[in-house]
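Our preliminary data section would be incomplete without showing what the modeling component actually yields. Below, a chain of 177 amino acids is followed by its predicted structure, encoded as tokens that our downstream tools consume directly.
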Amino acid sequence: MTHDTAAPQAVPGAQPPSAATPGEDAMLRLGQLPFAAAAGLLARYGLTLHAVPDGAPIPGSYWGEPEAGVIGHEVYARADTPVHSLLHEACHLIVLPPERRAAVHTDATDSVEEEDATCYLQILLADALPGVGRDRLMADMDAWGYSFRLGSARAWFERDAAEARAWLAARGLLPDG
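Predicted structure:
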């Protein structure tokens, strides 16, 4: 399957976190951010961020711990959840109309367009979190094992994501600024 992105889903080149890709240990984790900042960002989109206790299972996690989980309008994460995972799963919900969000449990979509929009939006929203930003997020996406046709998150975002941006713009989902 040739596809703009291969975000955390079962596609060629994507590796689940258990594969321990190089650089994974250095990924930015939710516990390194002010929780209120992450929760506030998600709240702007009608989502609730739930802090899962250390070592506890994460409800709705597609890849398993420590990856974020989604159920309805709720996002679940632990302190050791990678920030890219938190944003990716939240963006899956953001790109869905509210009536479709309610039905989500663990696996948000099988739509290529929604997956691409999710990846694009997560990169944009990284700029709204203190100490994150798009550069850091894209590096963590690459370290995790997202695979992109052009070889990196940055190359895709800068040179191959026009359709994802247009999809988000048509739905009024591009953040201001």
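Residues 114 and 142 are 20 Å apart (CA to CA). Residues 112-126 form the longest helix (15 residues). Preliminary results of this kind motivate Aim 1 of the renewal.
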